[in-house]
Design brief:
Strands 3, 7, 9, 10, 11 and 13 form a 6-stranded antiparallel beta sheet that branches. A 5-stranded antiparallel beta sheet has the order 2-1-19-18-17. It is built from 7 helices and 19 strands. The chain starts with 6 loop residues before the first helix and ends with a strand. The chain is 18% helix and 36% strand. The protein is α+β, with helices and mostly antiparallel strands.
Length: 331
């Protein structure tokens, strides 16, 4: 090895950074930082893991501070962020490196865990949003779908709000199936003209608010998709997002924009949906989102869960338990 040189040292920091930022996956940077002490120091000092994460998922660009929290015998001790030294860079690297590891779960089509509420429902509970969790339009020999209330305005929108299966996940596609009323004359299909998707988090935890009543101002939306035209056809229509989106806070909003079909009995326009599903990857249980106050989210990291396949367990009475890393995410 005598006489060999490191390209980071030869090329200088600017060109070396451009080369390393050509990588597309943060996990590649984690492997790069394991090549040598010099490479690790370079990756950490320049915050490359964090930069690459921001490039992949702009939704995390508002991460403000990172704290290291240690479980003590009594309560939790917060250590201040050393913004003048290298400790905060080490913490940044650790958070985003483990977050990369936490995204290695497989793709799944069932990233929705529950249906929260709809902006309107025609015959509740028979035509509830809960029916859209079932892939079939017939359940127990009865039609299964959600229906809006009727409107004379073809531009009047409707909204469906769902809880995702994890408070932190990456979604790439959303599928929506309009309902075809096979029991009505002409078998009409009650699709919307277009659809749009938003992801975000509640302003206060869902378990302390009335989630049955629709109110858009209860949520903070961190991503809004483009509008997708919707076909007036009875099949599961697949809408691929321009790029994968990091959903922070477990909430998905489906906006159904415009109406195309009237009901013969009252000549009002309706929107009816059979099924909604989300394709994506859930982040492993080592990470969780907390909402301690209005407009603020905490990204919580549990190292004990990162090294086991089971969910994180509390470390009560263990003063030597691993640290937790929290990133303060401001909306």
């Amino acid at each position: 090895m005598k006489g060999t040189s490191d390209f980071v040292e030869l090329l200088g920091p600017d060109l070396s950074m451009k080369i390393m930022m050509c990588l597309e996956d943060p996990s590649d940077l984690v492997r790069v930082s394991a090549v040598s002490i010099m490479w690790r120091q370079f990756v950490i000092a320049n915050g490359l893991c964090r930069q690459l994460w921001h490039r992949m998922f702009p939704e995390v660009s508002n991460i403000d501070n990172i704290f290291e929290v240690k479980n003590m015998t009594e309560g939790v001790e917060f250590e201040p962020d050393d913004s003048t030294g290298g400790a905060h860079l080490e913490r940044d690297h650790r958070v985003f490196a483990f977050l990369t590891r936490g995204l290695t779960s497989y793709m799944r089509n069932d990233c929705i865990s529950d249906a929260i509420c709809a902006s309107s429902t025609d015959h509740y509970p028979r035509e509830s949003i809960k029916n859209t969790l079932e892939p079939s339009d017939v359940v127990d020999d009865r039609p299964s779908y959600w229906s809006s209330k009727g409107s004379i305005d073809v531009a009047f929108p409707e909204t469906l709000i769902y809880r995702l299966a994890a408070r932190l996940c990456v979604i790439s596609e959303i599928h929506v199936k309009p309902f075809q009323a096979y029991f009505q004359l002409g078998f009409p299909i009650y699709s919307s003209k277009a659809v749009r998707f938003l992801v975000g988090h509640p302003k206060v935890p869902l378990d302390v608010q009335d989630v049955e009543e629709f109110s858009d101002d209860k949520y903070v939306w961190t991503y809004t998709s483009p509008e997708f035209p919707m076909a007036q056809e009875n099949f599961l229509q697949k809408f691929k997002l321009p790029k994968p989106v990091l959903c922070i806070g477990e909430i998905l909003k489906v906006e159904l924009l415009g109406r195309v079909q009237t009901q013969e009995t009252d000549e009002l326009y309706y929107i009816c949906i059979t099924h909604v599903e989300v394709v994506g990857r859930l982040v492993l249980p080592a990470f969780d989102i907390k909402i301690p106050e209005l407009g603020k989210c905490l990204l919580e990291y549990h190292p004990e869960a990162a090294h086991s396949s089971s969910p994180a367990k509390s470390s009560q009475g263990d003063s030597s338990s691993p640290s937790q890393v929290l990133a303060s995410i401001w909306s």
